[in-house]
Amino acid sequence: MNRRAQYPDAGPGIRRKPGFADPPKTPSGARRGRSYARLLSLLAGVVAVLGWAAAVVAAPNITGFNRLYGSATNDPNYINIYGSGFYPSTTIKVTFGGAPASIAYPIPTNNTWYIETAVPAAAPAGPQTVVVTVDGSSAQSYWPFYVVGSGPYVAGFSPYTGGDEVTVTVTGLHFSINNAPAVTSVKFNGVAGTGLYVGQDTSLTVATPAGVTTGPIQVTTTAGTFTTSSNYYAPCRITGFSPVSGTPGTTITVTGVNFLGLTLLELNGQAVTPANVSNTSLQFTVPAGALSGPITAATPANPFTTSSNFAILPTITGFVPASGPPGTLVTIQGSNFTDGTSTPTVRIGGQLAAVQGGYSADQVVAAVPAAAATGPVSVASGFGTATSSALFYLPPTLTSFTPGGGPAGTSVQITGTSLTGASAVSFNGVSAAGFTVNSNTSITAVVPAGVITGPISVTTPGGTTNSGTLVFHGAPQIFSLNPAHGQAGTNVVIAGVNLLGATGVAFNGLTTPQLVVSNNQTLAAVAPPNTTSGSVTVTTPGGTAISPSPFTVDTSALGVSVQTSPATITAGGELTWIVTITNGGPYAAPNARLGDMLPSLAALLSKSNTAGGFSTNTSAAVLMASLGSLPAGGSATVTLTTQAPGTPGWVTNVASAGADDGNPQPLAAIVTNSVWVQSAPLLSARLLAPGLVQLSWPSDLTNYQLIAAAAATNSPSSWTNVLPPAALSNIVGGLRWVATQPLAEGARFFRLKE
Q1: What is the three-state SS of 600-652?
Q2: Which of 33, 329, 595, 626 has a CA that sits 20 to 30 A from residue 457's CA?
Q3: Distance from CA of residue 606 to its chain's centroid?
Q4: Number of CB atoms found within 10 A of residue 605's CB
Q5: What is the per-residue pLDDT across 722-748, written as a single tens digit (0 to 9) for each?
Q6: Which uninterrupted H or E stretch holds 589?
Q7: Into how many domains does the chain fold?
């Protein structure tokens, strides 16, 4: 409606209130100024009539509009600006986005004034700031005013919620052009509605489409398209959520439709904070203290509650004590331990633990089972199972380790139970050079330097244990031998370290079967027979130790010499063997003895011993003489008298000496002595013819000379050699020498001279 046409005398800055009497008309040339003066006079009279008190006008202030949108074209209604400080005034100006309005009239109402204006054609389209200037003082709107262009504008719609095929009334501007409907479509979140009806330029109706979803309304005309900043809300619906169970702190993703505009989100009646909300999904975090139950989502259209529940799993917040042996009562704290229908199931270290007495949703007490090992605590209820992040520590045990000994740096595999969390491993009190916990039943530890044979110990939060009588053998060492010398059978005390468990002792490589371990520092071993000088070794599970100095065998240097008397013996004569045994040292010869193998054809006539007795092995013709202990530098003599055989030949005597120390010069203690037994010097004579005699004697008597004399009583010097020995070459049968001699008158005597 054209107010200037209705009130032609109104000034450009003043709007006359309908119902007031029109002032007298004046010529148009002087109308504008006089009309404004008369109007002010008239308004002053109105103020007086109405009892209003004149006052100084304060600065203008905008408090609101009759509507926050308008257009310079096809907008039949004026814009009312509400506030204060609009009257009395001389000039009033209104701008929309900086463009001045062509009209601005102050209108009184209910003891105050408002300004009636219209959007100027020059105002830029879109949200703009409105500024009112009264007599030079200005105020601007706190809200943007939407200047509608030539296209449509939606100011509002009703209802703003609903489902399918709901009739919605949309209000705004420019729904028609030249009084003819111009709307070509109305869409709800991108889907066209049905039953569109445009009744007038400022209003239309449309039905929501099937399956309508929450979103903006979009109105399209032949002049353009407008999309609302607010949504039409369709009923929300939850189609699922994941996960279906969890603990406080769990993030749940809810899926469905029409979640935009969410006004409420609850888990079993407890409000939760939504996040990442879209039209088809949202998330929230399960709060502390939440209970199992349905999920409810509400939007401006409706609330929706799931038919299935989100299950709050049991949660373990702690337990006391943190360690203990089987039978210990453990109090477990948390939540959702029971669903109200069954007793919670408790496991400690994977083993079923007996629940003790009463229990509640946030506490249960259970006894540590006998078979339990270090491990987490778990509580299971109808809602699910909770497992503690912390471990319950049982006292550790050690059952074995391998190897059983070794030097520093050896890697040892320790086996036991409840070894998790081990903080220390030591070898007989010496901390391991390093260790690794492989599992609850295994630790690998490195042997440190200086380990003494003893138990291995392990410390965990559950306590400290050791291997008891099962000891780890450190590398053995030998410090000394006492005595450091001796003979076979000597008991030697070996001092050192890590000698426990010794399995063998050897003297210069010869193992002795006789050893006694006294303690970790001492053992005794007997030098075995045939011991020779050299190092002593001790072998234990920890290794083999070598003595720093040798064990020296106390050996003697036995020697044997044999003399015969006489030097030459005639068959059947007496032959004396004088056997001398000497000890050249440096040590005494224990249990010295002489073995003498007599000639087989010689008969023993007598025997004597300067140091002991005799024994005879007649079958072997061996005479044994016991000499006792023969000191270094000492000697013993054995005298044997025999009868020489009756036939000529060599007779041999083999004498040997020995002792229990192992003579290092065995060849020097064996002597072979041979003596020639010659035939008896018997001379035979046979008369071959008158004046010719044949003489013969044993051929082995090479050391005899045939001599002759005129009388047997002649002095030895008167006896003369009959022939030189070389001439005696006639040997009868190779057994006798033969000589033929002529005989002169008278007697002649012959004899053999040695």
Answers
A1: CCCEEEEEEECCCCEEEEHHHCEEEEEEEEECCCCEEEEEEEEECCCCCEEEE
A2: 329
A3: 89
A4: 12
A5: 775 544 555 555 567 777 777 766 677
A6: strand 589-597
A7: 8
**Mean pLDDT computed over 526-531:** 90
Strand order in the sheet with 224-232: 191-192, 183-188, 215-221, 224-232
**How far apart are alpha carbons 243 and 248 in whole angstroms?**
13
**562 and 615 share a domain?**
yes
Distance CA 20, CA 544 (A): 131
Beta strands 454-460; 224-232: pairing state: unpaired
pLDDT tens-digit series, residues 353-367? 999 988 888 899 999
**pLDDT score recorded for residue 624:** 84
How far apart CA 215 and CA 301 sit, in angstroms, is: 12
Q: Write the single-letter amino acid at 476.
A: P
Label residues 649-673 b or e (16+ Cβ within 10 Å = b). eebebbbbbbbbbbbeeeeebebeb
What is the pLDDT, as a whole number, of residue 714? 75
Asked whether residue 458 falls in the same domain as residue 481, the answer is no
Distance CA 657, CA 559 (A): 7
Give residue 1's pLDDT band: very low, low, confident or very high (50, 70, 90). very low
Instruction: Give me the CATH number covering residue 596.
Output: 2.60.40.1530
Percent of the chain with pLDDT over 90: 57
DSSP secondary structure letter of residue 208:
P
Return the pLDDT at 395. 96
Ranges of H-type helices in 340-397: none
Structure tokens belonging to residue 145: 């005013």
pLDDT band at 42, cuts 50/70/90?
Answer: very low
One domain, residues 351 and 370:
yes
User: 429 and 322 in one domain?
Assistant: no
CA distance 280 to 237: 9
Q: Tell me which amino acid residue 38 is.
A: R
Indicate if 141 and 46 belong to the same structural domain.
yes
Domain of 401, CATH number, reads 2.60.40.10
**664 vs 568: which has the higher pLDDT:** 568
Tokens of 615: 């024994």
pTM score above 0.70: no
CA 538, CA 61: separation in Å to the nearest integer? Answer: 112
For the residues 595-612, what does the mean pLDDT come to?
80
Q: What is the pLDDT of residues 56-109, one digit of tens each?
A: 558 999 999 999 999 988 777 899 999 999 988 889 999 999 999 999 999 998
C-alpha distances out from residue 713 to 184, 231, 509, 748, 750, Å: 192, 180, 78, 11, 12
Q: What is the pLDDT of residues 192-220, one digit of tens each?
A: 999 999 988 899 999 999 999 999 999 99
- 617 and 632 in a single domain? The answer is yes
Indicate whether 141 and 163 sit together in one domain: no
Q: Domain boundary at 185, 213, 232, which?
A: 232
Closest residue by Cα to residue 107 from 172, 15, 176: 15
Return the DSSP state at 40. H
Residue 171 C-alpha from the chain's centroid: 73
On whether both 388 and 343 belong to a single domain, the answer is yes
Q: Are 449 and 408 in contact (CB under 8 A)?
A: yes
β-strand partners of 168 = 206
Cβ partners under 8 Å of residue 215, min gap 6: 188, 189, 190, 231, 232, 260, 279
Residues in CB range of 717: below 8 A, 6 or more apart: none
For position 731, what pLDDT does the model report? 59
Instruction: Give pLDDT, residue 23.
Output: 32
Domain with 467 in it = 397-474
Last residue of a domain, one of 625, 648, 678: 678
433-449 confidence digits (pLDDT tens): 999 999 999 999 999 99
